Amino acid sequence: MEAVAVQINNMVAQLDEPEQFLVLEILKRFLPDDVATEDDLVNIALARDEYRRGETISADAINWD
To answer: Would the pTM of this model clear 0.90, i.e. be above it?
Structure first.
């Protein structure tokens, strides 16, 4: 049996373009759209360390004017 990805690819290739677009939009819904990058993960770790060390201030302490 073919790998699932190959089967999906072969099936989608048989569709007309409008149907391919529809399948693409449906598949996108199964994928996370908020995946953290490596830089995001590094910065999150740094921010957590700062928080643990008490190097942050609350939003209430900031003069937003």
So the answer is: no
User: In Å, what is the CA distance from 65 to each residue of 29, 61, 62?
Assistant: 40, 12, 9
Angle CA 56–50–61, to nearest 5: 0
Classified as helix, coil or strand, 41 is helix
Q: How many CB atoms lie within 10 A of CB 15?
A: 12
Taking only the tens place, the pLDDT of each residue in 30-42 is 998 888 999 999 9
- Confidence (pLDDT) at 2: 72
Question: 39 and 47 in contact (C-beta within 8 Å)?
Answer: no
Domain residue limits, the chain: 4-61
Residue among 42, 62, 61 at smallest CA distance from 50: 42
